[in-house]
Amino acid sequence: MDRVFKALADDTRRRLLDRLHEQNGQTLGELCERIDMARQSVTQHLAVLEAANLVSTVRRGRQKLHYLNPVPLHEIQERWIDKFERPRLGALGAVKRRAEGAMTDKPTFVYVTYIQSTPEKVWDALTDADLTAAYWGHSNVSDWQPGSRWEHVRTDGSGIADVVGTVTESERPTRLVTTWAAPEDESDADKHSRVTFDIQPHGDIVRLTVTHENLADEAERADAASGWAAVLSNLKSLLETGSPLPEEPWLVPNR
């Protein structure tokens, strides 16, 4: 958390966050356009933001795109902001809203979390039917080969799949890309979203980046934001403690 406050204390870094709020998913060159500073200096500021987990990066071919990551700001809100009157802390609230903003023509939601585990175990937790049932409330069912169908099946024995899609990339244990759709929309590609799981070693832990793009609208983006936060927190608990959280986060009513 000290890194988050240090990152937010600098005007240039706040302006970089503002630029990403205006248009999420920018390259270094695009971010430098309205910053009167050498490219190397901007790179250093972005490194501070990334170290604080306020900015995450995703590679698209030869390009490296930068995205706001709302997780640390959400933690600030839970730990401190909710204890005080919101009007007196409007500035931090505005930062949070900016961090959760997204452009419709770029990946709409990017979530980064760090897990004390191995890439292989994180991969299995995302793809094994029994493990996903333990923390997600659904079983992810597929052979996970490129081109194969996958299903997000309820664990109540009904066999009903609430999400279906296609595996487009599968590189165990580092990268998994799938399309997502409601079963009734499976034949309509325009209604499909896309989820990418990037799993990378980070020292002795694992950095998991989830990119959910091509969402239909702001309401769907908001649902994805809250849904991924709950599911990935439960996954992290399962891998680090052996048990999911004592309550399924998505079933706890908001205060």
How would you summarize what this structure contains?
The protein is an alpha+beta fold. It is 38% helix and 25% strand. Helix 1 (2-8) runs antiparallel to helix 4 (39-51) and helix 8 crosses helix 9 (218-241).
Structural class: alpha+beta
Overall geometric form? globular
- Measured between the Cα atoms of the first and last residue, the distance is 24 Å
Strand content: 25-35%
E-strand count: 9
Write the layout of secondary structure elements.
Blueprint: H1 2-8, H2 11-22, H3 28-32, H4 39-51, E1 55-60, E2 63-68, H5 71-79, H6 90-99, E3 109-115, H7 119-127, H8 129-136, E4 138-141, E5 149-154, E6 161-171, E7 175-180, E8 193-202, E9 205-213, H9 218-241
Helix pairs in contact: 1-4, 8-9
Task: Note down, in words, how this protein is organized.
By secondary structure, the protein is α+β, with helices and mostly antiparallel strands. It contains 9 helices and 9 strands. It has a 7-stranded antiparallel sheet. A two-stranded antiparallel sheet has the order 1-2. Strand 5 (149-154) and strand 6 form a beta hairpin. Helix 1 (2-8) runs antiparallel to helix 4 (39-51) and helix 8 (129-136) crosses helix 9. The model has no long low-confidence stretch (mean pLDDT 86).
